[in-house]
Structure prediction request, 407 residues.
Amino acid sequence: MRYGFEPLTVGYDWEMAVVKDTGENLDEKEADSLADELRARVPWAATGTDLELIESRLGPFGRFGDLVDRSERFDGHLRTALAGRGWSLLRSGTRPFEREPIGSHIHVGTVRDWDAAARAQNGMAAFVAPFVALSANSPVYRGRSGRYKSYRVASFAEYCSLPQTIASPGATQPTWGTDVCLKLAISATVELRVCDGATSTRLMCELVALAAGVMHHAAEHGDGRPPSDEAYADLMLNRWRAARHGLAASFRVGGEDVPARTVLTGMLEVAQDGMKRIHAGVDDLRVVREMIEKRQTQADFQLAVFENEGRDPYRFTRALANVQRDGRAFERYLRTAPPLADAPADDPAADLLADIGVETPFTVLLRGTPMAPAVLDRVLAGYVRGGEVIEGRTRLGVRTYTRAGLA
Prediction:
């Protein structure tokens, strides 16, 4: 057996928003002050900031138990520091009405060579959509709601988590900003960037363990060959459906639509060998397994609070921060939440047509669709030939599209 990761280690960069008792976000100076205090209290946590977010940077760990223990200890120190200042955590994939999306980035190491890292990156492309579905936690974004359970992923995390490309080991360079990044030239890890900021410490640790198991499988069993154009289009479709419906989505697999929970159950199976190497198993994924069974996500938890607060984003922000004073609030919600029904298998081409207004730029349409640029070109050309859409150009030559009924 070849070892892509030796030894198998895990860690994370977990971004968290903090709000004051007024509901306002911290500014950068306040975030720096809080991070300085936490580094003094718990230097092993290497707490930093990302703009005005607090970022917990834990790892590397070779044992799941150590990851859980340190994460829970850090959570206690963080909450103590916040209580002393009258501030609260807002663990989410977004701040609902302003500023950038918020992510949880998982690092898996130790990778020794570029071929192994590229195998892991390429192999992980098939698992991006399941991780989007599991981590969906941004259903309210810049004042918008109702269309996606992960607006962060739907917006490509504002160019901080771009759809995965396929790497050729002999003709690729270190990257940043894609769903899965090779970090061998910087550190001995491969980074999964697609997950929304997590609500729960336990869930964060479970996602890390699952990512390690799946990435180990991808590195060990990947053949390095790129997927066909059709298979790649399905991967992008699944990413979009996961952002839209979370665990209630259906995924296109082998030309057929299957429930996301079926794909996730299979993912748990292939992750087992890798998880054993960090002394974890499927039984440790108790939150993940209940989420899959009920098709409930952190986004559904947020939406329940959002509806209760009259869909007002300001009231919602205050209420969510208050609810999250209980670090296990999501797990408590999950125990009593009913199973959700499977969502329909959406057609992105029809969705695309609804997004075309008057002189809508090609780049705007590209950001709102799962289609690769070449596929989007063909779909738009078909709409133009059919008379449903009119193509134009700006003075700088940028393509624009107008729905015929609006011209």
Summary: The chain has two domains: 5-336, 348-406. The longest helix spans residues 64-85.
